[in-house]
Amino acid sequence: MVNNSRRGDTKQGTSLTALKALRALEVVAEAREPLSAQDAADRLGTDKVSAYRMLVTLETAGYVVRDEHSRRYSLSYKVISLSRNLLAENEVTKLVTQTLHELSVTTKETLHYSVLDGNAAVLVHRVKGSQLVNVDFQIGDRASLHCTSIGKVLLAYQDTRYVDEVVAHGLPRFAENTVSDPDQLRVELQRIRAQGYALDDHEFSDTMRCIAVPIFSSGGRVQSGISISGPDSRFTIEKLHELKEPMLEASRKLSQHLGGIPWSA
Question: Which fold has domain 91-257?
Fold first, then answer.
């Protein structure tokens, strides 16, 4: 999965300073190890002094911490408080979790539930299956919309303007079968809407295949979906089609609970 977020035109009244500070926070969050000011500057594409000021600002606000010995920065636990209400246990969360557990029992696979956020799909819930060999994504991972099953299934149900914006941001190639042509992508999105699910056959990774289904909420909106990913050594095309029916049934069931109109052939 990739970490990206929508970088549209700057709206009137936007604080560029705040945007830069938030981007610095993203850079610290994306790093697997604490960053120095120079590390942050390199990733932000700015000078060391500017990066240092942004990091000090974030430290003062309590969102990053600085190790006094290494002088490197990492996230503070205060960041968790920002998402507390977003991820809090509620009726929807319970329904999602129950659906994932039931589907995991049926398929024995690890289930991922992702939501649309900007120009990416963000993994917010997961239930681990009993298979020993699987693809283990983590909560908070972001997936590109044009080359993953979950990304494509979410993108397929958005309006034309939204799709055009995603295309305008570029369709980078990640693997052998990545769809990087806008017209080909639009044809693929039509196919997904017609069949009610999306496949990823070596589009994000040359060693992985995936399948995803949409979740419909009130008004027929699709802002979330369920996906299963696995190594291609085990996830053949035939295997994906075996998973199709139980996943479509889970989509119908959860969509009905959420007041949406589920897909039907």
Answer: Beta-Lactamase (3.30.450)
